[in-house]
Every structure is written in structure tokens, then in C-alpha cells.
Amino acid sequence: MIFKLVGDGRPYPEHGLTHREWAQIPPRQVRLDSLITTKAMLDLHSLLAADSTFYGDLFPHVVQWRGELYLEDGLHRALRAALHQRSILHARVLELPA
């Protein structure tokens, strides 16, 4: 199993962070099997594109809420890590109060 759970939607409250504010959060290591996805589907073009991180943040965005880690952005990066047999990836983690 790659992820803890495959979700479809964001169960946590809206945080309103901009890309610039996300960039201020230092990346940390996160285990893939501790993540719950917020998207149930992935576009293979995004997964296989050579420049998939060229226009966005290099690190996935994870929201920690009520003791769970939700992968908000960067599903294709997480799957690439899994395909390379890595169990950990570096992500920016926003901790929301419960």
C-alpha cells in the first residue's frame, strides 16, 4: 500500500494560504504510508511529464489536521517517489488547529 488512504476531497477547513506563504514553510520528511490523498484521480500526463515541477513548488503540500496528514498538492510527486521505491518524501506541512 502506497498511501494510508485514498480520499476524494479536503475534509479540513479552508486555510487560504497563497503559493508564497506555502514557500515559507520549510520542507520536512513525511512517510508516504502516513498520507491521505485529497484526490482520487491522477492525470497521467502530469505524472509522466518531464517538467511537472517546473511551474510549481518542488515540494508537495500536506495539511496536518486532527492527527492526520492530507496530501493537498503533489500527488504526482508522491507517486513518482513510490515508483522509485522510496517510502519517504520531503513536503511542506501546514499544521491546522483541530
Q: Describe it for me?
A:
There is one protein chain. The protein has 98 residues and is of the alpha/beta class. The chain is built from 3 helices and 6 strands; from the N terminus they run βαββαββαβ. It has helices at residues 19-23, 44-48, 75-83, and strands spanning 5-6, 27-31, 35-37, 61-65, 68-73, 88-95. Strands 1-3-5-4-6-2 form a 6-stranded mixed beta sheet. A hairpin with a 2-residue loop joins strand 4 and strand 5. The mean pLDDT is 89.
Enumerate the spans where pLDDT stays under 50 for 5 or more consecutive residues.
Answer: none
Name the helix and strand elements from N-terminus to C-terminus, one letter apiece. Answer: EHEEHEEHE
Percent range for β-strand residues: 25-35%
Biggest sheet: strands side by side, in what order? 1-3-5-4-6-2
Shape from CA axes? globular
Structural class: alpha/beta
Kindly, what is the distance between the CA atoms of the first and last residues, rounded to a whole number of angstroms?
A: 27 Å
Mean pLDDT: 89
Secondary structure layout:
Layout: E1 5-6, H1 19-23, E2 27-31, E3 35-37, H2 44-48, E4 61-65, E5 68-73, H3 75-83, E6 88-95
Organism: Nonomuraea cavernae
InterPro entries: VapB-like_prob (IPR014447)
Protein name: Antitoxin VapB
Relevant terms:
single chain; 98 residues; alpha/beta; globular; 3 helices; 6-stranded mixed sheet
